[in-house]
Specification:
Blueprint (H helix, E strand, L loop, with lengths): L1 H25 L31 H9 L9 H7 L39 H6 L5 H9 L1 H4 L13 H14 L7
The protein binds heme C.
């Protein structure tokens, strides 16, 4: 009795070992996916990130500092950014074209509505004031409200700091008299 029992135990144990070994042998060569060659990814070269930071022109910094407050502490970079709102209609360089709106070179210290060859609305032609920082600030805050009936279809620049920076930028860029 004893011997038989122990013999059965050994056989059973051997069978169990053999059974354990089986599943492992089944799937050892699953290389199909892993061997796929890397897809020929389009070589999206990284865009050149070397856009040079806008160098601060010392002459412009000096001009900025000479402006009356609050424009003397204006942020020219933000002013330039704000000017994106205007550039579809206005040039600011000397001799720049009139587009939908008049060229703005020399705007400060000039009487409103007097750029040659630009067809102004009657209200702007008749306005008679001289542009300075304060006037431009009011105009840009609410173009329609400031001078009803004018033809500048522009919603305005609502943020006061953005207006200040934009005016500082225009004062530096349009070569006008710094006063006002
Ligand atoms: C959709 C076009 C348009 C945009 C955008 C625009 N303007 Fe004008 N702007 C005009 C037109 C048109 C006039 C002339 C209005 C008239 O005759 O009534 C004008 C007139 C002016 C004037 C008066 C010029 C003068 O000779 O008296 C100033 C200053 C001015 N714009 C500044 C700006 C600034 C600064 C911005 C951006 C914040 C701006 N404009 C955005 C069309 C535009």
């Amino acid at each position: 009795m004893r011997r038989v029992t122990s013999g059965l135990v050994i056989i059973a144990a051997t069978a169990a070992l053999a059974a354990c070994g089986q599943p492992a042998a089944e799937d050892s060569g699953a290389t199909s996916n892993a061997a796929a060659p890397p897809a020929a990814a389009p070589a999206t070269a990284t865009a050149p990130t070397s856009t040079p930071a806008p160098a601060v022109d010392p002459a412009k910094s000096a001009l900025l500092a000479s402006l009356p407050a609050p424009y003397n502490t204006g942020d020219l970079e933000n002013g330039q950014k704000q000017f994106q709102l205007c550039r579809s209609c206005h040039t600011i360089t000397e001799g720049g074209a009139n587009m939908t709106g008049p060229n703005l070179y020399g705007i400060f210290g000039r009487t409103a509505g007097t750029v040659e060859k630009f067809r102004y609305s009657e209200p702007l032609k008749a306005a008679g004031f001289v542009w300075d920082g304060a006037k431009l600030d009011q105009w840009l805050a609410d173009p329609r409200g400031f001078l009803p009936g004018n033809r500048m279809s522009f919603m305005g620049v609502k943020d006061a700091k953005n207006r200040t920076d934009l005016i500082a930028y225009l004062k530096v860029e349009t070569g006008g008299k710094p006063g006002g």
